[in-house]
Give the backbone structure.
Amino acid sequence: MSLLGARTVTSTPVISSSKSNPESIFLGVEETTGSRARTVSGAIPSKSARPRGHYSETLIIGQLRSIEDNVRATCGELVFECIVVGNGRPSPALFIEASERCTMDSEKLRKEIVRRTRQFHSRRFIHERITSTKYVVVVERGTLPRTATKGNVRRKAVEDRYRELLDGIYGAFSKY
């Protein structure tokens, strides 16, 4: 795929044949902003020239928060607090503290949360979805680790505390 003369956009370095810029030895994708890759010259490559596969191997905090916000919006009467973890994992996992008003048992609550959030997750990349009840964990109210001052749930502390449970959920998948 040729962009701007003899320059090509690839995921591997290529030797430049440009006479106007002899010191530029390698060309290719230099930076990525969202899903828009730019070449060294600043041109946006065609859709077929963009790198294939997942755009991110790790989930960005904004992506995790959008999942949490959706759960709070669609399941507000069922959920007291929720946090999404799964950095470096094949998909996120949702930890839930059930509301006092929730009378469902753990399994029914997990199924209801997945059912209510299914439409939201259908619009996300596969590695950003929670589509199975095995990725929803219901814990006792007040057991998620919180900050001392404001009482916010600490994402990293949840991953550390429930590491063995997460390893069991994901099976033989290595975190890194």
